Amino acid sequence: MKRALCILCCLFINTNATPNHPVVVTTWSFINSTIGAWKVLKNGGSALNAIEIGASICESEQCDGTVGYGGSPGENGETTLDALLMDGKTMNVGAVGAIRRIKNAISVARHVLENTKHSILVGELATEFAVQMGFKEESLNTQDSKQLWMKWHNENHCQPNFWVDVTPDPRKSCGPYQPKYRSKTSLSKIKGDRYNHDTIGMVAIDSNGDIAAGTSTNGAKYKIPGRIGDSPIPGSGAYADNDVGGATATGDGDVMLRFLPSFLAVEEMRRGASPTAAAQIAVKRIAKYYPEYMGAVVALSKDGEYGAACHGLAGMPFPFVVHDKTMEKCHVVLVECT
Fold it and tell me: Where does the chain bind substrate (predicted)?
C-alpha cells in the first residue's frame, strides 16, 4: 500500500480540457533552477529559454557538486562538463561533451543548436568553439575539487574507480594501467547517490505548447579522462517531441545511455502510456539487465501530465520538482524507488 500511495503522489492527471501549460519539471531537489525556468515561462518565454536559464542557475550554484564547475573531478583531477538542449518543435539538438575550461555548458549547447548544423561537439575543440562564440575560458577546478581528488588519489589509492581487466590491479594502484585479458577480478563499485548522480535534467512546455528538454552535468567522480555519460546523448539524457512530450534521465550514465531511457519514455507515451507508466517501463528495461544500477526518469506529456520512476537509490525516495500554472510555488515530489 505504501508504494502504491507514493506512485499516486507523483502522478498529475489533467482532468481539464485545457492543457496544463506552461509547466516545468526538474530532476532532484533543484528548486532554484525550477524557479528560474518558471519565471521565463510565466512571462511568456520559450521552453528553450526556460531550460537554458534553469540549467545555468544550477551550473552557477554547483548543485550538489554534480553540476557545474568545481565538482566531480576526473581521474586526472580535472572537472569537465556535459550538456544537452533539445527543441521538441524542430527536433533539433545541441550538445557538448567533456568540454574543458568553460563554465556555461548549457549555453554552449544552445549555440551548437542554433549556430551549427552539428548536434554534438566534444573535448578541447568544443572549448575552441565556445571561445569563438564569445565564452570566457577559465579553470573549472576549485580548492574543494582539488582536495576531493587529493583524498581519493592519496588516501584511498584511487578507489573505487572505473577500470576493469587491467594490470596492475587497480585495487592496489593508481596506474598507469595496461590491458589484462581473461581477468575475473571483482572491483569496487562506484556508489551512486544524490551527490554522485551526475545531472540536472529539465523538461518544459511553454504557453505555445512548444516543448524543450535539457541536461547539464560535470559527470561521474574520478571518471577516466575523455568519458562522456548519458547526459549529452539525445534520447538518453533528455528527449522532446512536440507531438508527444518530453523526458529526462539521471543516474548511472554509463549504463543508462545503452537503453535511451528518455526516448523510450516518450515513445511509450506515444503508444498511450501515462508519464508515470512510461517512466516505469524505461526504468524496468534497464533493471532487467543491470539490477544494481541507480537512476530515475521523469516524463512530461504534451498536455502537461507528469510522472517519474526510479531504481536503486538505497531505500531513499527520488525527488523531482514541478511548477505549473496551478501552483503558487514549485512543489517537490517524492517517488519511491524499486
Answer: 227-230, 250-253
